[in-house]
Amino acid sequence: MSNRVHRWHTRLMAAAGATLLATTATPVMAQAFGERSAVNIPTCNRDCLIGYARDYMAALAKKDPSSLKLAADVQFTENNVVIPIGKGLWRSISKVAPTGLEAADPLTGQVAWFGVVWEHGEPAYYAMRMRVQNDKIDQIETVVHRRTGLPAPFGDPDKVAHHPAFNEVLPPDQRVSRARLIAVAQSYFNTVERNDGTVFAPFTEDCGRLENGISTTAPGKGVSAEPGANGNAASLASGCLEQFKLGIYYINKRIRERRFPLVDEERGVVIASGFFDHDNEVDRYKLTDGREMKTALKWPNSITLLEAFRVRDGAIQEIEAVFTYVPYFMHNPWATGREHGEQGE
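User: That's the sequence. What structure does it adopt?
Assistant: Structure tokens below.
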């Protein structure tokens, strides 16, 4: 081999070695859903994020957002409408429940809080998702459900009990991956969508669901949004699986703009958002056992929600949701791409 060829060969091998070294030295981390880069190193752990959420709720109770670490371009929504921080509920708030369901995802910098607030002494159910980046809050998404004449669950605000499983760290052999947790939550929405008795989602035998502070899976305790005018979900069947086998939720034409911004693998928790669209093309439908149901509302409408799932051994153990009615086919400004208007027939 000539000296010139030898020098070329040596430089080529050195370059290949440097490339391999750089590749193996790069931190290996799965890409977080919704994140632009596969390399995302958390800077605020779970306790840190929960602290941001508690500070936010404390500031809300005082009607004073000035104490918060807000990004200059912070975006705030209430029931899918972009409004300035400090407006909306910030003006009418009179009290915040001392505790709530809390969840955090250091990988995406997201944190959530579900609970009860009061406006001029009147209770309302509330859910908040927030993102923290570079030590600043830059996203705040909230859903507020007030008591109205529309058919929706509304629990006793003094008796709300958030399931303790949402805070329990799972043994390693009961955990599943981030992607699998999102897939399980998706399977739930797939089951709810045009529910005809087919069940795509896995449920534990003790699966329960809390909607706006009240159980909608325990007999005699719940009224579910639009299950039918002549009966509520909990009185028709108990438990998550049995209700879906009956096809109670057939009126949900689509579950639209689904998002899963927060995942906690250690606790098996997923926080999701989306819309349940009720086109109400028909006002009567039959359950799989032959019983006839009537829709409670006769016009097209949607509900917007933030929903928490707790997954154990790959199956849904507990669900908690805060939802409220919004105009039919309303858009969520946090949703992007195909999520907006999908299945828009």
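The radius of gyration is 23 Å.
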